[in-house]
Amino acid sequence: MHRTIDASQLIDERPISRFQIMTIIMCALVVFVEGFDAQAIAYVAPSISADWALPKGALGPVFAAGLLGIMLGSLFVAPLADRLGRRRVILISTALFGLLTLATPLADGTTSLLVLRFLTGFGLGGAMPNAISLTSEYSPARHRSFLIMLMFGGFSLGSALGGFAAAYLIPHGGWESVFVAGGVMPLLLLPLLWLRLPESLRFLAASGKQDAAATTLLRRLDPAAGADDRVVVNEEAAAPGSVRELFRHGRAPITVLLWIIFFMSLLDLYLIVNWLPTTLTAAGTSMGQAAITGSIFQLGGLVGTIVIGLLSDRIGAGRILTVAYVLAAFCIAAIGMTHGGSVGMLIAVAGAGFGVVGGQIGANALSATFYPTAIRSTGVGWALGIGRIGSIVGPLVGGMLLALDMSAQRLFLIAVVPVLIAAIAAAAVQAIGRPTALATGVTPH
User: Fold this and answer.
1) Nearest-CA neighbor of 266 among 359, 400, 379?
2) Could you give the 3-state DSSP secondary structure of residue 183?
3) pLDDT score, position 292
4) 0.85 exceeded by the pTM?
5) Domains in the chain and their CATH numbers?
């Protein structure tokens, strides 16, 4: 006799398997190389500016163009996975940003560099939300936030490695060598992804695709499953890829609050990531030390990812995000009041990374647990897409303020405001109720 098996229940009730762990590792590798490529431009910016004799703040439009590409990729490429599948979009996106990063050394001026970073962003924006969605869909509910954040810690690790790699590669091979390394890594990863990255069983079940692939995946999770067993997902019906669905069944308030969190958090994150090395070198810090300080920011974020992930499943994501963003506010203010290379500066940078990067990754996990399977990539993609508007505004504003000779102290004091707004929005999310309840159409109490 054939059985009807709920994919969500199957994953939630069983111990996590080696197959699930390997899937999460594959997603972590995707965001690792993405983190390296996304942040590479910030680490090489002082070297490019010196090589091309650019005035201070001239690379602001290049930063913004890359982030605009990521925004458009999040809004329009990532949601395709709710129709085509997570695996296919991840593979295509990874190939795209790998090839274009490898081509970046061909740039001979700010215009060509801007175009290449813009196009690279489409691949970066398409891959990230689907790595989050795929991890969410193979993670049991009891550990979902932690596993998503642990996976996404690969992004912080890749970003941090980019700083250390830039400090070594630029003196030996010029700024171009950083992009060569950033392009080769995802292209080398592609064959492994082709062989080992599975499609989401929940996606196949939600889309009604009970084919050989679904049966194979079901048996990987439940060896006792028979060839005639069918897999389903007992969730509310939703039109795949529909943005309107993000505002139905009580989801509108948290969707809006998520967009506020993402906008403010990513505004601060990219303002700091893109301009911290430049402000340090302008104050007399060596390029190598400035790049390493930027890596400290990402390493602080990696620690924040683990701590916030562990606490989110226990005390509530909204509550821990509020605390993280308030901590970040104090540390960002302290960055502008300390001297480059000092112990106080490194502690402040690490603390800011803990709160801003860790908080943003926590928001990623929150968005993935909030939306049902049929619109998960759309929900995560649009939250990241709206956030990317903030990530564009941040570097542009930073560049404008630096061009006006604003002091680093005042710049970082201004950067405190967005993260405090994110803290207020996170507190409101916690007050409204549990997103996992809303994801199944159940109104929280």
Assistant:
1) 359
2) helix
3) 80
4) no
5) 9-439 (1.20.1250.20)
